[in-house]
Amino acid sequence: MACFLVSAAEGAIVKVFEKVEEKREIKRLEAGEEITKKASIPLSKKLRWLSNMLFGGSALLAFEHIWHGEVVPWFPFLSAMSDSADAAEMFREMATVGVSMAGLITCVWIVMCIVSEYIAKRPVKEDEQSETLQTEAVHE
Question: Residues 46, 110: contact at Cβ < 8 Å?
Answer without folding.
Answer: no
